[in-house]
Specification:
By secondary structure, this protein is of the alpha+beta class. The chain has an eight-stranded mixed β-sheet, sandwiched between helices. A six-stranded antiparallel β-sheet has the order 21-28-25-23-22-30. Strands 24-31-29-26-27 form a five-stranded mixed β-sheet, with no helix packed on it. Strand 18 and strand 19 form a beta hairpin. Helix 2 packs parallel to helix 5. About 2% of the residues have low confidence.
């Protein structure tokens, strides 16, 4: 058989008349890519929660085999055709770039799958790149030494081997080739494109639509699907179209005080990435949280509590506001226009409460300070706002939890007045689960990563105990409601998924919920409830009434026996869950079949009951889809409100007037700078003020230029106006638009001044002419003075 195959290959080569140096170059490029890609795919197959058998697992390699063969044939055809026009060097460089792209995407997608259990998609890549300042540290934390070594080795081989072992471009490969060879090259291109197209076949049941595909092909396919508006290509589960059943409740406009109102304070603590089973009250065999356990024994323990969206900023909205966050990756609540409803701090401040929010993470991630301000808090404090002795940084988000203790004392002694409401967000238990250096690490698990996580949860419990001691020391404990809840859970491969953002199993959304309320007997509430019940429960305990229909969740003090609860992934198009009583549906919007579990008999969610109850699954899937549509409609109305905030029919006041016109289309009336001096590493905010004169042609965009002393420090940013809510192609003549831009001054920039200008470019990326300026197409927005970062003073060693 092998002799016949060898004869066939020799005959093909003789007929095709492909130069041997081309074949060698393609082999040297694609062999390392193919070997690494197939090894990584084998690893992903072994890690997949569906546990495919040997035959199915072997078939799943077909996506990579087809794609890599296809790319190899495309390279052969491309190299021959570029040689025909005397551009061999260019052809080889392009082939190297394609190989580099394949290996980089393959490694990135593999790491993403191991972290999340999902295929890397275009939407996530685009979202991350647009927020690279926020996501870079998260990505960097996932880069391991083996990954760097693998990437370095493959990159070096791709860049060097084709030039070392292939003939130089001055050889036969660079000479013009005949029509017969050119025809064979075109045939290679056609066959290669066909093989890559065949690799787009969707996966079989239970594996996810894009798992079969080679990562780069899957990434491109998801991008095309996004831009062409196709929701699915080859759905594996039922795709249910939801119907709009009215907007979701967004909290009361105001609350009514009962006679006892105002006698109690409120402290609400969100434990970062803390799943219920990682704490002692929910898992007595795991002594990670002795203080929380004692709090639960003397107070109220909710046995089944769930996060609405397993992402911190989203959970802050659920917990501190009592309504669902937006079903987008964008944190709409941090926009300048504010929240879709009134939050606890806003309502209680109206009742003469002092309000403050403390967090150990830094203030800038996801514009957290603006989010908290929009919730109505008087005071915002984050771990990077002051420096304290013996406080350590524990992860890429910021400092250890104990950083909040001293600011709490200061606030209570100098600013707070009773009654007050204080909220806290911890940080220790976030990935990568580091603990302060002086924390005594214990052996909670044989698994290294899980043991790190349990210790980080234990260190957060120590903070919780010290926080309670602060309030006891101030004599406030016995007149303070103390609520502790997890913002979301954390997965460690129990169902093939990791971290939390897109985990609908209980390890991702089941959270601890413990309440200390003065003068109340210990109580166990069976649940289920979700985070939407916390705001109405807090108001109820503090002595305030509100219309029941204003909240989607009921007060825990009078929760119905079987409420219907919904949760959604951070990537809301990936998955959602519905919980009713002891049963739970996980719905994947056509990417894979829905799952149904009975948690009373199967708490680990191992036995899928969906095939046994098709009618129930269909009905619950419809309810879940209806809920998502209603949620979208609720925030679509908010989007309109936000557009109304930025777009008006009368001119807004302008700080620096300009009055220049871009190609008779739009007038730049002026601008506003948030500051004239900015420290390196800090953020600068710009406001632009436009008047629309004519409809904007398709493809026109705005670009901001920042020019520094060194040319390499200068930057060009493509700006998306009105946060993408009001695209330029929809701008109407007569609109007065206030736009906001925000960028970070890099720490390594040289010089003392940064010059700013803005231009409008057409669909060919050419700057349009400007009238009313000094003849330049980039309109000056003034200059900003750059201030050096404060240097730490070195302590002088005392001479003995």
């Amino acid at each position: 058989m092998f002799s016949k195959l060898s004869t066939a290959i020799r005959a093909w080569k003789a007929t095709a008349d492909i130069p041997p140096e081309v074949s060698r170059s393609v082999l040297l490029l694609m062999c390392p890519v193919g070997i690494v890609g197939l090894v990584l795919k084998l690893h992903r197959i072994t890690q997949h929660p569906s546990d495919p058998g040997f035959l199915e697992g072997a078939l799943l390699l077909g996506g990579e085999v087809l794609a890599y063969l296809g790319f190899a044939l495309l390279m052969v055809g491309g190299l021959v055709l570029t040689a025909r026009v005397g551009a061999s060097r260019v052809g080889l460089v392009v082939a190297q770039l394609v190989a580099l792209l394949l290996i980089i995407v393959s490694l990135a997608a593999h790491n993403y799958f191991l972290s999340t259990g999902f295929t890397l998609g275009f939407g996530f890549v685009k979202f991350s790149l647009l927020r690279i300042n926020e996501t870079a540290a998260v990505v960097a934390s996932e880069i391991s030494l083996p990954l760097i070594a693998t990437l370095a080795g493959v990159v070096l081989s791709i860049l060097a081997l084709p030039w070392i072992f292939g003939k130089k471009p001055s050889g036969p490969a660079s000479q013009a080739v005949g029509g017969k060879t050119a025809g064979a090259a075109l045939a290679h291109v056609f066959l290669g494109a066909t093989l890559v197209s065949l690799s787009l076949v969707p996966t079989g049941q239970d594996l996810g639509r894009e798992f079969f595909r080679e990562p780069t092909v899957a990434l491109v396919a998801s991008g095309l699907r996004t831009h062409l508006g196709s929701a699915s290509d080859g759905s594996l589960g039922p795709v249910v179209l939801g119907t709009h059943s009215g907007p979701r409740p967004v909290g009361p406009a105001q609350v009514t005080a009962r006679p006892e109102a105002g006698a109690l304070n409120l402290v609400l603590v969100l434990l970062e990435s803390t799943r219920a089973q990682a704490t002692t009250p929910y898992n007595p065999e795991l002594p990670t949280t002795p203080f929380l356990d004692q709090l639960a024994k003397n107070g109220m323990l909710v046995e089944r509590a769930y996060a609405v969206v397993p992402h911190t900023s989203k959970s802050l909205v659920s917990v501190l506001c009592g309504f669902e966050p937006s079903p987008t990756m964008e944190i709409l609540g941090s926009h300048k226009t504010g929240m879709v409803g009134r939050c606890l701090a806003d309502l209680l401040r109206e009742q003469s409460y002092s309000t403050a929010y403390f967090q150990a993470p830094t203030q800038h991630f996801e514009d957290r300070s603006q989010l908290i301000s929009n919730m109505g808090f008087d005071r915002f404090w984050s771990g990077d706002m002051t420096k304290q002795k013996d406080i350590h940084r524990v992860n890429y988000f910021g400092n250890e939890d104990l950083v909040m203790i001293e600011p709490t004392r200061t606030w209570l002694e100098q600013e707070a007045r009773e009654p007050f409401f204080a909220a806290y967000l911890t940080n220790n238990s976030h990935h990568p689960y580091a603990v302060p250096p002086d924390f005594e690490v214990e052996k909670f698990s044989k698994t290294k990563k899980l043991n790190k996580y349990f210790n980080s949860v234990a260190s957060a419990d120590q903070f919780l105990e010290q926080l309670a001691e602060v309030y006891r020391g101030e004599g406030l404990w016995e007149r303070t409601v103390f609520i502790v809840v997890g913002d979301h859970g954390e997965a460690f491969g129990e169902h093939g998924l990791r971290t939390h953002d897109n985990v609908m199993y209980d390890e991702g959304i089941a959270v601890p919920l413990v309440i200390h309320a003065p003068d109340r007997d210990p109580e166990r509430v069976p649940g289920p409830v979700n985070q939407l019940a916390i705001a109405p429960t807090a108001l109820d305990l503090l002595g305030y009434d509100f219309p029941d229909e204003d909240y989607a969740g009921n007060s825990i003090l009078d929760t119905p026996s079987e409420p219907v609860l919904f949760s959604t992934c951070y990537r809301s198009d990936y998955c959602a869950a519905m919980i009713r009583g002891s049963k739970k549906l996980i719905y994947h919007f056509g990417d894979r079949p829905p799952l149904l579990f009975d948690l009373s008999r199967d708490p680990l969610e191992r036995e899928n009951l969906a095939p046994l109850h098709p009618e129930e699954v269909a009905h619950w899937s419809q309810q879940t889809a209806d809920w998502k549509v209603s949620l979208w409609e609720t925030y679509r109305d908010m989007g309109k409100t936000m557009v109304d905030r930025y777009v008006q029919q009368s001119p807004q006041p302008v700080q620096h007037e300009l009055g220049v016109v871009f190609e008779d289309l739009v007038e730049l009336r002026g601008y506003e700078l948030s500051k004239t001096k900015v420290r390196k590493g800090r953020w600068l905010k710009l406001h632009y003020f436009f008047k629309v004169l004519k409809p904007m042609p398709p493809g026109y965009r705005l670009r901001l230029h920042s020019t520094a002393k060194r040319k390499k420090d200068s930057r060009i940013f493509e700006h998306v106006p009105v946060r993408g809510l009001y695209p330029m192609r929809e701008w109407k003549p007569g609109d007065y638009i206030e736009d906001v831009d925000r960028f970070k001054v890099r720490p390594w920039w040289k010089g003392s001044k940064l010059d700013l200008c803005i231009e409008l470019i057409d669909d060919q990326k050419r700057p349009v002419p400007v009238s009313g300026s000094d003849g330049t197409t980039c309109v000056s927005l003034g200059s900003v003075d750059i201030v050096e970062k404060k240097k730490k003073k070195k302590k002088k060693k005392k001479k003995k």
